[in-house]
Amino acid sequence: MAHTITTEHVVKRYGSVAAVDDVSLAVGEGEFFGILGPNGAGKTTLVEMMEGLRQPDSGTITLLGQPVWPRNTALLGRMGVQLQGSAFFERLTAREQLATFGSLYGMPAARVDEMLELVGLTDKASTRAEKLSGGQAQRLSIACSLVHDPDVVFLDEPSAALDPQARRNLWDVLRAINERGKTVVLTTHYMDEAEILCDRVAIMDGGKVLQLGPPADLVRDLDAPVRISVEAAALGQQQAAGLEGVESVSGDTGSTVISTRRPAPVLQALAGMDALAGLQVRGATLEDVFLQLTGREYRA
Ligand SMILES: Nc1ncnc2c1ncn2[C@@H]1O[C@H](COP(=O)(O)OP(=O)(O)OP(=O)(O)O)[C@@H](O)[C@H]1O
Predict the structure, then answer these.
(1) How far apart are the CA of 255 and the centre of ligand 1, in A?
(2) pTM of the full predicted structure?
(3) Which of 8, 34, 183, 226 is the most buried (most CB within 10 A)?
């Protein structure tokens, strides 16, 4: 696969803090690439260096085959950087915002309507930016980053502060962008978002990339047990411990929770005992990957 972005041994320090500490990675063409980590992990610093907005202390970064530092204006038209909502011209409507950005790049007027459609804001075209909801403003800022038809789009925590429904709507927009062939680099501290959207994800903490790969592979490589829970009234802990394939049993409020790497015989036994009330089956997630890598719970 051709590489759209490469970073080699990139380091950025602020005083004694290594915000980004020797990061080497490559983002493929057309890839949906996630950078995941808790607050302060170094995500924004890394992405801003990829965008050519901050200078690495050492290491090299290329974007579309060219060095990004010193500031490379030839790359500006080929990358889209999501603006924060506060960067809007407050008194302009959604359509006027887009038209303003588009005209800077000589884009035809029809492009504006196409972008409004893409992010689901056609019916808000005449609404002023200051009157948009949080989710609508985020989508408009994404449309602004795409209006000049860049090859690579950087989105820094686009779903922060959105309610669950607005986040899901945004995910549809992000998928649509990637399906148009754009390389997407997304930073997020939401594990589920990274798991659902990204082809590959780099898990960062303390300035380092701790793990990198497709979310499903990272989870599978853990070889973590599946947790099966049923109502405690349907199955006691002692009974559960005697079933084939059970590794350990615990309980929480009103439930019996079984850990197993062989869920099939356990589920079969539960069905046979008519003990499926309140059944929940939970596989490992990226949160478990983070826990294993760092020895601590993930707290965004
Ligand atoms: N301009 C700066 N001056 C001093 N320290 C900084 C600066 N920018 C970032 N840092 C520090 O570098 C570390 C990484 O910050 P960064 O913003 O890259 O993390 P992040 O993963 O994007 O976090 P968040 O999810 O909170 O945005 C933090 O310890 C932060 O305090």
Answers:
(1) 41
(2) 0.86
(3) 34
pLDDT (tens digit per residue) in 128-146: 988 998 888 888 998 999 8
| Closest ligand 1 atom, residue 187 Cα | 22
- Ligand 1 neighbour 253 (Cβ under 6 A): no
Q: What is the CATH number of domain 225-283?
A: 3.30.70
For ligand 1, atom 13, which residue shows the shortest CA distance?
19
Low-confidence stretches of the chain (pLDDT < 70) are 1, 83-86, 300
Pick the CATH number of 3-214 from 3.90.550.50, 1.20.85.10, 3.30.70.20, 3.40.50.300: 3.40.50.300
Reported ipTM: 0.95
CA atoms within 13 A on the CB side of 233: 3
Sheet holding 280-282, edge to edge: 246-252, 255-260, 226-231, 280-282
